[in-house]
Amino acid sequence: MTPRRLLVKVCGITRQVDAEACVRHGADLVGFIFHPASPRFIEPGNAAQIDTGRALRVGVFVEQDAAEVRDIMDRARLDYAQLAGEHDPQCCRAVGPGRVIRVFRPQRHADVAGLAAEMAQYAQCMTMALLDAGTAGGGHGRTLDFAALSTLRAPVPWLLAGGLSPRTLPEALRLVAPDGFDLNSGLESAPGIKDETLVREAIRLIRTFDETNDPRADAPRGSGGCIG
Ligand SMILES: O=C(O)c1ccccc1N[C@@H]1O[C@H](COP(=O)(O)O)[C@@H](O)[C@H]1O
């Protein structure tokens, strides 16, 4: 059986040079943030100009409805919509289940069973889930309780997000078994500006884990599913 490879998404891209560094060092997905209040906000037309090579393109949305999300997906040439607001299953279906990465907030739940129950309600209308720290928004740079997530069985592949960096990744890799990681402010020298040294080191840690440290290398990770 072929060992599974963790997905790596680097979010908050605003510059061509950063997209190229992410792809060069092995990112699978790059993210653009379309939340106007974010310091990482990028206009859809500017995102469209950024060439991401073989990496798939994700847009992050907080307050937009399905029609706005679909419009920006077209204009910015996106593969996936990361829905980080109060987007309900009907909205996810309107965007297109095969294109939705729905964000969930473990800190809204008393335990992992409550989180899994909420995720189950979206199982048929998302292709992937993303777990982030805090109770709203994103890009806070705060980590989740990794140990608390160690028992999660998700209905679809899922990404761990929230404050991940070369400093916090080793513990996340040791304690949690997602299908991939979403990296953002932990790889920056300033909001929206990636530090290539941090990008390289973070992806190196994940790829080293892929190759050497996963005792379950022949077994499915996380949900056991895959995207793409
Ligand atoms: O980064 C932002 O500014 C942002 C704004 C609004 C919604 C989501 C945002 N970013 C997402 O937040 C998570 C975690 O980021 P961090 O590692 O804690 O900085 C990540 O999924 C980003 O896509």
TrEMBL record:
Q: Which PANTHER family match?
A: N-(5'-PHOSPHORIBOSYL)ANTHRANILATE ISOMERASE
Reaction equations catalysed? N-(5-phospho-beta-D-ribosyl)anthranilate = 1-(2-carboxyphenylamino)-1-deoxy-D-ribulose 5-phosphate
Which family would the database say this protein is a member of? Answer: Belongs to the TrpF family.
Top-level enzyme category = isomerase
State the taxonomy lineage.
Answer: Bacteria, Pseudomonadati, Thermodesulfobacteriota, Desulfovibrionia, Desulfovibrionales
What keywords appear on the UniProt entry?
Answer: Amino-acid biosynthesis, Aromatic amino acid biosynthesis, Isomerase, Tryptophan biosynthesis
Name assigned to this protein: N-(5'-phosphoribosyl)anthranilate isomerase
Q: A Gene Ontology molecular-function term?
A: phosphoribosylanthranilate isomerase activity
Species whose genome carries this gene: Desulfobaculum xiamenense
**Residues of the N-(5'phosphoribosyl) anthranilate isomerase (PRAI) domain:** 8-202
Q: Does the keyword Transmembrane helix apply?
A: no
Enzyme Commission designation: 5.3.1.24
Pathway assigned in UniProt:
Amino-acid biosynthesis; L-tryptophan biosynthesis; L-tryptophan from chorismate: step 3/5
